[in-house]
Amino acid sequence: MKINRRVENVWHLIFIITILIMILPVIYAIGMSFKPLHDAYNNVLNIIPIHATLENYITLFDTLPIFRITWNTFIVATVATIFKLITAFLAAYAFVYFSFKGKEILYFLLIGTIFIPFTVTMIPNYLIISNLGMLDNVWGVILPQLADAVGIFLIRQSMKNIPLSLIEVARLDNMSHGRIMKDIVLPLVRPAITSVGIWFFISTWNEFVWPVLILKTTENFTLPLALQMFISSEGGTNFTVAMAVSVITMIIPLILYLSFQKYIIGTFTSSGIK
Amino acid sequence: MKRWLQIALFIILISFLAACNSEAAGNESNEDGKTVIEYWHVNAETQGGQTVTELVEEFNAQSDTVEVVAKYNPDMYKGLMQNMQAEAAAGNSPAVVQIGWAFMDYFSGNFEYTPPQNVIDEHFPDDATFLEDHFLPNVMDLAKNSDGEQVGVPYSLSTPVLYINKDILREAGLDTDGPQTWEEVKEFSEVIKEETGNYGLYFQEPADNWATQALLESNGASFIKDGQAAFASEEGIEAYQFLTDMIVEDETALHIGWDQGVQSFIDGSVAMAYTTIAQRSNIQDNAQFDVAAVESPAWEGKEVKLPAGGAMLAITAQEEEEQKAAWEFMSYLYSVEAMAEWTKGTGYVPPRHDVSEAENGLNTYLEENEMMTPAINQMDGVVPWASFPGNAGLQAEQMLLDLREQLLEGSISPEEGLKTTQDEINALLP
Amino acid sequence: MSSLTAAKGKLHINRENAFGYLLLIPSIIIFAVFTFWPFIYTIYLSFFEWNMISPTKEFVGLKNYTEVLSDPKTYRILGNTFLYIILLLIINCVIPYIFAFVIDLVLRKYKNFYKGALFLPAFISLVVGSILFTWILNPVSGPVAILFNWFGLEIPNWTKAEGWIIVVLSLITSWKVFGYNFILLYASINGISREIIEAARMDNVSLVRIFFQIILPMSSATGIYVFIITIVQSLQYVFTPVKVISQGGPDYASSNLIYHAYHEAFVVYRTGHSAAISIVTMALFLLLLFLEFRYVERGVYYEN
User: Per CATH, which fold does A64-229 belong to?
Assistant: First the structure.
């Protein structure tokens, strides 16, 4: 069947408009981070700065230990993501390949946690972290985030797609569960793990409500907290420095994504997540 | 799998290393035997954050006994209160905190604190008359709760001023000294809209009722009378009607969020902005027109009454050692030099009466920054920020905010709205 | 004899099951400590009037619930909550589905560029997105307002206008999450066996029919994931722009149930009230989840 040229062109137009809407604010933010603040206020239409300056970045590096902060953020996001994936993989495996008492209810309960407002968990979790002596410590931020229902949900769905016969044959060959996981299941659910992993990484990387409560000294801050230091209702927001923080915050996940892009896209297209 | 495992192990290793070298704050004393205390503040980098860091560093360098760790709390006094709640629930507390005036009653009713004078009397006989000597009684009164107890010591003081864009006023053929009364503000705005097409006024709309209180009480209304809400008096309704008329009827005033309103003033879309003196450096540094600040307008023939904005410092340290350390730190912050630094960094009005004139204080600074002058001049008219008593106090404040949204949308008349809300609030209050 | 084998069989199953439980232990511990226990505690708190720090909690029975359920604000906010969900489902589930389908099967050029460009905003935090759009969409001074002005148009005063505020906050949230949902759906559609699609094309089956009869059913497992995650986004992610831009205003017009629970707990410190809102929210969504399990999950396509 031939696809109508005209239809195709209309779609190109739609995509280009959508992409402009999505990309322009990003370029605007980057442009702002190189503008003096008064210029940002008075020439809002200039996306590309006329008098480009590094002033905002210099202010940022002068006032905050930004390398340290970036490192903290990296630790939080990486450790939380890896643990969430491990716990979710194990749990999904149990839900798919074992039948035990209360399985359905347990699954339902775990998935139900997706809808628990974080206000419910905030204070009790704070008390636990405080009792563990983990306040003002990146581990205090990480600890409650070692498991996640969204991960269990997606990985379980992906596992259900693996033909059961494959696992049965392996069991008949007396293959251990450890080896089944490693050699059969893991490679097949890699796309699901990758996609939910990206989700986890980006969300923990940008999280701010919980770390605000736990972290106190600037040396232990994460990047979203650094951003908060330039936002103030009463004194006014230093918009351009805030955008410089944003650019730094955005750049690292972006670099990570681009360097793994081949691998990620490869994972997706070789098997697809279904 | 093996590779994954290796990566995982590697990450775990480095994160443990990271965790080990992250400092644990909140210890009672550090290796030099200094008492370590926490100081909680709300000063973002645009609002004196750098000054806080410098003052704390200077203090730590000169003190042999105390080490202060400063913690920044985002989202102003509300955000600090939220963090205090969590900390108190966990049984901890910082030593020195900034408490916004609106939270005065809630704070004093729910948190453990020690009045500063008690700490002074116990440990610092030399400072016995420090507060009396250096603070005016009406300023100290700002930090008293509704039971009349001295909860803390005023630290950051702000008042609302009227910022004016002289270029627009000139273009509209108006007096570039700006309006003196609210009636004039309205007339000015009409002329500005007619002549230049710009908005006349932006009246700040943050998540509090500070500026509204200034408007209503200057007209002779009072927010709270004998522990009851009393804003729905004739004067109160008249004042609110004035504001809603400008926004809804005349469309000469802008109804918009705080950040956006200030943005629109700085880029020259609005001729006058009624907002806090704490915005001074933001406005002064970024406006590219002939900008000035004038004193808060009065109502024709009436006296200006301005609620103090800002915060006090309160001592929440539980142990004696820490309380002692807390005052040592506070007395440093209240020294003339530190106060002067504080004013320069934040734009707040110094609460100590002798700082403005002192040679080592703000003398030359004020000459160079004319925009500070109106805020300092109008300190005589300062009244306490209305803080509703009891546990429902914050809820009452919220109801007034909800009312503001309804009124400025024009969905309800000021008379009806103020009366209903007043009754609802009084039903809540003890 | 037969009872022995039966016992043995049972034993075998039990050992197997024990391993199943073992695999669940890490997740269960984390959830038990950091989610279930706080949740049970919240149920308990919902029967008290308390502000989290005062030494006395006053037992009020069901008062918090009756107050929440009789407050017209609650229904207003409930309505907003569903409005957010519907808007985000359209923008972040339906549209990316169509986009993914078009990029995979209709377009021949620039596919990679589109994919990359749509994903880019996913890396920006919503806090940044919120302050950025507050600036860009300032109805008087923002660049968009100025551009509109050139054409004699005005943009609505969206931060203060009921209705508009929800639309704009939804768009800001979508700006960030759109790309992620899109990439997932694209990967899923791209993974569908080409032979079936080609065969359908040979038979001159229309694109619309291909979409509904082949693509949609065969990618439905990812579809469900994106569906669920979009609901999560419209509940939990919307919180950030609400908090940064509107604080639920004007007069609760942009508040959703999650933000309202936050507002009650951390702005006016009515812990019991907030707990009751959280429990009602939970109950409502568990019911929806249950229905999803009963009726939707059944129709999901799994390869075996």
Answer: MetI-like fold (1.10.3720)
Which of the pair, B416 or C161, is modelled with greater confidence? B416
Chain C neighbors of A1, CB-CB under 8 A = 201-202, 204-205
Percent helix / strand / coil, chain A, rounded to 5: 75, 0, 25
What is the pLDDT confidence band of residue C194, given thresholds at 50, 70 and 90? confident
Query: Residue B150 in contact with residue B144, Cβ under 8 Å?
Result: yes
Task: Kindly identify which residue of chain B lies nearest to residue A127, measuring between CA atoms.
Answer: B90
- The string of pLDDT tens digits covering residues B323-363 is 999 999 999 999 999 999 998 888 888 888 888 777 777 87
Could you say which residues from 113 to 172 on chain C have a Cβ atom under 8 Å away from some Cβ of chain A? 114, 117-129, 131-133, 135-136, 141-143, 146-147
Domains in chain B: ranges and CATH: 30-158+309-383 (3.40.190.10), 160-306+390-428 (3.40.190.10)
Q: Does C39 touch chain B (CB under 8 A)?
A: no
Kindly report the CATH number assigned to the domain that includes residue C131: 1.10.3720.10
Structural domains counted in chain C:
1
Residues (pLDDT < 50) of chain A are 1, 271-274
The verdict on residue C195 lying in a domain is yes
ipTM: 0.88
pTM: 0.90
Residues 47-86 of B with CB under 8 A from C: 78, 82, 85
> Which residues, 6+ apart, have CB-to-CB distance to C301 below 8 Å?
A274, C217, C218, C219, C220, C221
* Closest by Cα among B198, B194, B214, B197 to B164: B198
B243 CA to centre of own chain? 22
Pull the structure tokens for residue C57.
């909690």
Q: What is the pLDDT of residues C237-269, one digit of tens each?
A: 899 999 999 998 788 999 999 999 999 988 888
Q: Tokens for A266?
A: 């490869």
Q: Is residue C3 part of a domain?
A: no
- Per-residue confidence (pLDDT) for residue B313, from 0 to 100: 96
